[in-house]
Design brief:
Blueprint lengths: L11 E5 L16 E5 L4 E3 L4 E2 L7 E11 L8 H4 L3 E12 H6 L4 H5 L4 E3 L3 E2 L7 E6 L2 E7 L7 H9 L9 E3 L8 E2 L4 E6 L5 E6 L1
Parallel strand pairs: 1-11, 3-7, 4-14
Antiparallel strand pairs: 1-2, 5-6, 5-11, 5-12, 6-8, 9-10, 9-13, 13-14
Length: about 200
């Protein structure tokens, strides 16, 4: 398990289209657009991202991960941060051709190793934190966490209307800008101010 996680999460919940820089002309969502990754997608920093042999266009989305520390439902925004145990750097790996062609995102987003998560830091985050994604040491993405359309508390509260957050669940909060493409042999790294990075090689 990634550093600080003692068990495989019951669920990994992700937010789509949560930075204005990632909308590319699409309308801003009226509420958080949530989807799931299976827990079997989870890998730790240093482990390989394995691309399926028929994958053709894989992209790396650098994200802030939120680790849930308490079971809760029907939270207000004011209550939401009270169930957060910590934060981590993460990647939402996505196969774009499958994402566009399939009716569901189960393989585009949910393949084994498609959710690297770095070491977990305690429940605090620099309000001016920036996220940077690098491919082979070169910057490919940069965004301020403050630019989230829906902040962490808003997403947790919204999700809690419909599902029960449980200890160990992981929330991925969205990616800024244009995600970089991954090919075998690449090394992808995500850094967020004040958090340990997640860094993984990519294998075909």
């Amino acid at each position: 398990m990634p550093g600080g996680l003692t068990q495989r999460p019951g669920k990994i919940v992700c937010v789509g289209l949560n930075y204005r820089s990632h909308l590319h002309g699409r309308p801003e969502p009226r509420h958080p657009e949530l989807f799931f990754k299976p827990s079997t997608a989870l890998v730790a920093s240093g482990e390989a991202i394995r691309l399926p042999p028929d994958a053709r266009r894989v992209e790396a989305e650098g994200e802030l991960a939120v680790i849930i520390g308490k079971t809760a439902r029907n939270l207000t925004v004011a209550e939401a941060m009270g169930i957060v145990r910590g934060f981590a750097c993460a990647l939402d790996i996505s196969e774009r051709e499958w994402q566009g062609a399939d009716k569901q995102w189960w393989r585009a987003k949910g393949c084994d190793t498609f959710c690297p998560v770095g070491p977990v830091a305690p429940n605090r985050l620099d309000p001016g934190a920036e996220l940077v994604t690098r491919i082979n040491g070169r910057e490919a993405q940069r965004g301020a966490i403050s630019d989230l359309i829906f902040g962490v508390a808003e997403v947790i509260a919204f999700g809690s209307r419909y599902l029960t957050w449980e200890e160990g669940d992981i929330l991925l909060t969205g990616t800024p800008g244009e995600p970089p493409r991954l090919v075998p042999g690449d090394v992808v790294e995500v850094e967020i101010t004040g958090l340990a990075s997640v860094r993984c090689p990519c294998e075909g």
